[in-house]
Amino acid sequence: MNKKNKSFFLVLILIFSHFCFVYSQTTDVLSLYNRGNEYQNESSWYLAIQDYLEVVRINPAFSEAWYNLSECSYKLGEYDLALQYLKQAETLEKDNARILNLKGMILLALDRSSESKELFNSVLKKYPNDVDAHFGLAEIELLDGRYGGAELQYAEALKRSSVNRKAILSLAVLNAEKNNFAQSERYIRQALSYYSGDSEVHYIASIIYAMNNDYQNAEKQARISVEVDESNTQAYIQLANVLYKENEFNQVINICDYLISRDRNNSTAWYLKGISNLKLDNSEEAVTVWSTGLSVQPEDEIMRNSLEIVARDFLSLEDSRREYWAKYHLNKAKQYSSQYDGNGMLYEYQRALLLDPTNKDARYSYAKILELNGMYEFCLNQLKFIKEYNYEELSALEKTELNDKIEAYDSLLQNNLSAKWNIDTFYLDKTRWNIVMYYTNSSDSLFHSDIARQASLAASDIFSGVAITSIKTQAAPVAGYGEAFRNARRNNFDYFIILNTKETSEDITINYVMYSGRTGKEITNETFYGTGNNRFSSVLRRFRQSVLDKLTVRGKILSRNGNQVLVDFGKSENIQNYSELRIIKKGSVKTADSEVGLLYNDKDVLGTIKITNCGEEISEGIIENKGFYDRINIDDEVVLISNPSDVQNNSVDNVPSADANGNPITNNGKTSLINEIKDSIQKPSIVELLRTIY
Question: Which of 495, 671, 468 is nearest to 574 (CA)?
């Protein structure tokens, strides 16, 4: 072979080798991309992302891989990252409707709804039959609270694609949410006829039947869903929720055990297993299950609250687990302290003490808060409690310091109002108001079954305090307003509250309507929304303060010496020196008919009191009679008319906070800017479900 032929042959070999390399690389890219597609179809987002990242590393011009990376990141809630990936796809494919629609959904998730709406409308202008743009506009309508507008957009999508799975299912869910179950069932039957054997369709059908309390069909559809796709965890949870409603608690436990064996971090399964054991009167097992569940998902507040209520009711005070669970609240209190959130810190210390009354660290910390706020009598009570129940746990130095502090406060307080009037405040009945929390089972959560009951128990429990309790509450189920009013009136409750709770994986909403227990008239209707960490406790605390801001500070005359009287409230109940009180004949005060505040006849007003010496639980004042005759007696009622200044009570957070007209007297209930922002982005609970439909 001559030199020229050798060179030509060498070039051919190089070309062939390069072709083989490129072919091999292309094959690898397509193989990775196809595997990523399979993972994505199985909702295995992390594995899909891993393959797609390798694809774009090898071939940065692979626009479909960039698009799918964006879609997977969107599904994981990583919206900023999803937008970055989508920009790469957008540079490779200009004016692609699919890319523009995904961009619109990402912008919507980033609360940039005006940009999102403009984008969807631009897509429809260029592509009038694009159904995804209608889906995006429908979600915008939902977020703005316009269900009718959302339904119109879904209907427009269905017109353009008569068998579109997402359009049919979305209309079914939306009509169920509006309680239009006849129309909802027509859509769900249509979906089942087109997509029989599709696990997700049967899963959505189960949810819709459950929303209509048709648990027989809900169970049937959930069972079909898990039979079709055994990997559909949400369908198993839905089946367990339905069986719970049907009182099939042993079956629920079996399903939860199966789910936990697949994923030990499934907090919903732990919660359901615990609450099912509780329904079977196995409180010890319920506590054990919840305790294990919280060890893997410590931030599940609803599961924690359920555990603590049961533990307080059924476990002995000596149970060592109480101390372990209380540590969670102590750590939370430290976090609030670092954020200079005094109210949050106070709340957590009280939660710890209600759970573990002999917890030395919690009681010392609570005593310090009382001391810093000038509540020396309350502080002394806490220190004496430590001496009685925790003395042997203290070191020699700690014992000396404790004894010295107790001795100092005993000396300081030896001439206080209790000593002067010979009144032991420990035996005073401080109950001022009786309120009942009612709940209905009209709606439930996909994450915490029986959420209505659990939220009502928590809402009732949050009025309990360590230092003082002025409000007696209880929780009970009702069919509706009529039953609630009848029960409240028969049992002489001052007010009754009907709670409605909605929950998604990211947020929780509590709506409460407060009624007069005497007349049944609506007093107020308010909604509280929480998202992020501590959302359940945050919503409950805001709910509590809202109720307290409507309850009048009231008490009674304990003793009298000429023009000087002693009343049974003080600084702990938002009273100050120079506070002005109105004296009303015993038994003459009742709640206002249809608004906050109190109602009484002018003839029953006996005079006024000006507080001259405000104690912590009792106060001394000077009376001024109304009219010529002195008709003021012990046990006559007193209500707050006015305070000389706004109250900032940072040591007792569960007492009434309104004057006689129902006007708030503290600044505790003022909504922070953060809460206002959170309220402004509240979304309907069905949005999350609709986003899962494809």
Answer: 468
The token pair that represents 405 in the structure block: 């502090």
- Quote the CA–CA distance of 86 and 516 in Å, as a whole number: 55
The phi, psi pair for 130, rounded to 5°, reads -75, 115
Supply the CATH classification number for the domain 433-550. Answer: 3.40.50
Triad 398, 400, 405: Cα angle to 5°: 95
CA atoms of 226 and 243, how far apart (whole Å): 14
Instruction: Compute the Cα dihedral for 659, 662, 663, 664 and give only its sign.
Output: positive
Confidence band of 645 (pLDDT split at 50, 70, 90): confident
Tokens of 424: 């032991």
**In whole angstroms, what is the distance from residue 90 CA to residue 97 CA?**
10
Look at residues 526, 685, 692 and name the one whose alpha carbon lies nearest to residue 145.
685
The helix/strand count (H/E) of the chain reads as 28, 13
- Answer whether 596's CB lies under 8 Å from 547's CB: no
> What is the 8-class DSSP label of residue 666?
B
Calculate the average pLDDT of the chain. Answer: 88
Q: Is the pTM of this model over 0.90?
A: no
Tell me which amino acid residue 76 is. Answer: L
Cα separation of 616 and 607, whole Å?
A: 24
Between strands 433-439 and 564-567, the pairing is unpaired
C-alpha distances out from residue 47 to 26, 35, 44, 231, Å: 20, 9, 6, 16
Q: What angle do CA 157, 158, 161 make, to 5 degrees?
A: 90
Instruction: Using alpha carbons, select from 552, 553, 503 the residue that is nearest to residue 531.
Output: 503
Angle CA 26–31–36, to nearest 5: 125
Please count the other Cβ atoms lying within 10 Å of the Cβ belonging to residue 85: 26
